[in-house]
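Issue 218. Parser rejects a valid record. Input:
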Amino acid sequence: MKALLVGCTKDQIVGAQQEPFIYNQRLLRSQLDLKVQHIQVETFAEIREVCKKNDSDLVFLLPDWRETAENAEKIIKAVREDNPSRKLIFVDPFAQTSSNYFHLLPYVDCLLKRQRMKDLSEYKRQFIGGSMFTDFVAKQSGFDLNGWSVSSEIPEGYEHRIASGWNLGTARRFLKVLRGPVFWPKRRQVKDIDVFCRLSLGTKQKQEWYCQYRIAAVEALKTLESDYKLAASARFNEDGLIPRRQYLRETKSSRIVFSPFGWGENCWRDFEALCYDCLLVKPSMSHIDTQPNIFIEGETYVPVRWDFADLAEKCRYYLEHPEEAARIVANARRVYTAYFEQGEFVKTIKQLIKE
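Output the parser choked on:
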C-alpha cells in the first residue's frame, strides 16, 4: 500500500507531526506494508494538484491553518471527487480541541486532532471562542475576544469522524532524549530550582486572549517565593524572552514544571518536563483525549484548578513530599517511553487504514 503525506510540513508544529512517519518508516513498511511519500507544498490548491497526479491509496493532508474555511472546503471536496475511492485523512492544524475545518468532515474519512474532546457530545455545545478553554477565560476574566474564534459547525452525524491522532510528544527531539545513551540512568541533574514557569505573552500591541490568564498563573506561583526558589516570569516579546539555552537549562534543573494552557491545552513544555524528570503540574486535562497520553491525574501529572486556586498549595505539597513527586515522575516517564516502545504510532496508522 502507498501513502502520501502532503502539505505545509516546514511549519515547526506540522513538521513535528510528520516526524513519526520518518523514524517509523521501517516499521510501517514491515508491519503494514505501507510506503510513505512526503511532498512539501504551501496551499490547498497545491495539495489538490499533487493529489491529482499521485496514485497513493491513502493520503494524509497537512494544511496550513491560515487558509480560509471556504477555500478549504472547495479544494478538499474536489480532492475527494477526483478520486472517490481513495482514503483521505485530514490532519487538523489547529492546537485547540476545536477547528475552523470541521465542515470538511463529509469529504474526508477522518479528521485527526492533536487533542480531541473526550466526550464527542461536547462538540455540540456553543463555546465562546470555540473551545471549553477560551469559553472559561472569557467568562472568568470578562475578557472580550472581539469575535476571535477557532470554530466551525459539525455537519449532523459526522462527529464520529473526529479522532485523536498524535500530539507534539511524538517529535523526534523528545524521542532522542527518552532513549538517550546507555549511561542515561546514571546521570543525575542537580535540581536546584523548585518551580519553573517561563511564559511568553506575545506582543504588547496585540495582546492575545490568553495573556491575562498566563500572567495570573505566574502571580499565583509567586506566593511561594518566600520559601522556594522559582524560575517564573511572563514577558512580552518587546521586553525580551529568556534565551532558549537558559530555558532548557532551567527546565532540567527544576523539580516542578508548571505548564498552563496557551493556544491549546497541551504544548511542548509538557513533554520537556517529562524528558528531564520534572514533576508536571498542569490545569486539569480530564476533558482531553490525546496520544501519547501523559495526562493521567495523580499518576503521570498533578492537575490543578483552571483558576489556579489550588496551584500554590499543590506545588508546596509535592515539594514537601519528594517521594510522592518521584513516584509520579517515574510513572510519567514509563508511560511516555512505553508509547514508543510499544509502537503506538504504528498501531494508530493501522487503525486508520482499517476504518
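Fixed in the parser; the record now loads. The mean pLDDT is 92.
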